[in-house]
Write a structure and sequence with these properties.
Layout: E1 3-7, H1 12-23, E2 28-33, E3 53-57, H2 63-73, E4 77-80, H3 87-92, H4 95-117, H5 121-126, E5 128-134, H6 159-178, E6 182-187, E7 189-191, H7 200-209, E8 214-217, E9 223-228, H8 229-242, E10 248-251, E11 256-258, H9 259-273, E12 285-288, H10 303-309, H11 317-330, H12 332-338, H13 341-351
Parallel strand pairs: 1-2, 1-4, 2-3, 4-5, 5-6, 6-10, 7-9, 8-12
Antiparallel strand pairs: 9-11
Helix pairs in contact: 1-8, 2-4, 4-6, 7-9, 9-11
The chain binds nicotinamide-adenine-dinucleotide (NAD) and thymidine-5'-diphosphate.
Length: 356
């Protein structure tokens, strides 16, 4: 079985990917994660006795550490999930986004290049550097615009999107300049179990369960294309195995929703699963001050990955959202762990000045 160095594997998508990779015996995994506020090792606790899973705490920006891990574990692939990933945080403190998303990815590419150049020809041909990116690099769509394709020009609007766009460009350059066998995936908004509750869906679920206001930015008509995290992880594995080197693949959920409709749907599920006789959860919905530069709409055209690799999303939004709400209801230990003091500070910082 191949070995992958997975970065950022203690975060939302990376951890879901590692759990699948080990449970389905896709890959042996070395997980390099800095353990920022967004991570939770509890998510991976079930792998503690797995001899083909190794966790290393560290920064992708640490060249010596990354080079050491490459020599030590001789991976056949690097899958780069590590990032600062939240748009609102990038607006309040963009510096860390440049540090990890741009400089960190650059360091990872440099260490990979030196490692890859020393491999045997056969190992060189097998090796892949898969970079996980976002649809936000393409900017914002109007309602009637066609969905983002792989050849849509980059037009990032937030510091987060700009930092991811920069990292994508470096990945592209390392393929074209050095021949490093890279793959890039640009996916839409993920949702599902184990997501840190600063992002819309888990934030709304947990606020509702606490009878707190459900903050909806602006008029709630911004549209996102929601992708179930397990569908995304399966797409990544497929791209890793069968993707054409140097190419990018868009991965989407074929599931565009206005934010206000997403929040209403979560409330309706909670009304069913945790009913209150005198109260509907939707009464907590609160329109608050908009995010600066808030992109209107994202939509992914994923016909390339469907045509070339045979992937399409399996989960529909009704079943995916139900599973997600059920997961948060059944995992209060995990939830309590991530809602530490630092999380409370974030809620104060982001929402205090957004009064409706
Ligand atoms: P996340 O914020 O939940 O997790 C990121 C992980 O990276 C955390 O465990 C964190 O500790 C780790 N990390 C951060 N900086 C690091 C560093 N310098 N060195 C090592 N580890 C570091 O993010 P996520 O939602 O799991 O996203 C994973 C990737 O997918 C990111 O690259 C993100 O840009 C991309 N993406 C996410 C979404 C989404 O909806 N969540 C959508 C499109 C693309
Ligand atoms: P988010 O989950 O932060 O993802 P992204 O900004 O990467 O798309 O936000 C999803 C959408 O929900 C986005 O349009 C902003 C909106 N949103 C709210 O309306 N209220 C909130 O409290 C949050 C966190 C997001």
């Amino acid at each position: 079985m191949f070995t992958a160095l997975v970065t950022g594997g203690a975060g939302f998508i990376g951890a879901n990917f590692i759990l699948l990779a080990r449970n389905k015996q896709w890959l042996n995994v070395v997980n390099l994660d800095k353990l920022t506020y967004a991570s939770n090792l509890q998510t991976l606790a079930e792998l503690q006795d797995d001899i083909n899973y190794h966790f290393v705490r560290g920064d992708i920006g640490n060249v010596e550490l990354v080079s050491y891990l490459l020599e030590q574990y001789q991976p056949d692939a690097i899958i780069n999930f590590a990032a600062e990933s939240h748009v609102d945080r990038s607006i309040l403190s963009p510096q860390e986004f440049i540090q990890t998303n741009v400089s960190g990815t650059f360091n990872l590419l440099e260490a990979s290049r030196f490692y890859w150049q020393k491999l045997s020809l056969q190992k060189q041909q097998q090796f892949r550097f898969l970079h996980v990116s976002t649809d936000e690099v393409y900017g914002s769509l109007n309602l009637k615009d066609p969905a983002f394709r792989e050849d849509t020009p980059y037009a990032p609007n937030s510091p987060y999107a700009a930092s991811k766009a920069a990292s994508d460009h470096f990945v592209r350059a390392y393929y074209h300049t050095y021949g490093l066998p890279t793959l890039t995936t640009n996916c839409s908004n993920n949702y599902g179990p184990r997501q840190f509750p600063e992002k819309l869906i888990p934030l709304i679920i947990l606020n509702a369960l606490d009878y707190k206001p459900l903050p909806i930015y602006g008029d709630g008509q911004n549209i996102r294309d929601w992708l179930y995290v397990i569908d995304h992880c399966e797409a990544i594995y497929l791209v890793l195995q069968q993707g054409k080197i140097g190419e990018t693949y868009n991965i989407g959920g074929l599931n565009e929703r206005a934010n206000v409709n997403v929040v209403e749907k979560i409330c309706a599920i909670l009304d069913e699963l945790v009913p209150k006789s005198d109260f509907n959860y939707s009464s907590l919905m609160t329109f608050v001050k908009d995010r600066p530069g808030h992109d209107k709409r994202y939509a992914i055209d994923c016909s390339k990955i469907k045509r070339d690799l045979g992937w399409q999303p399996q989960e529909n939004f009704d079943s995916g959202l139900l599973k997600t709400v059920q997961w948060y209801l059944s995992n209060s230990y995990w939830v309590n762990q991530v809602r530490s003091g630092a999380y409370k500070n974030w809620l104060k910082q982001n929402y205090e000045n957004r009064k409706s």
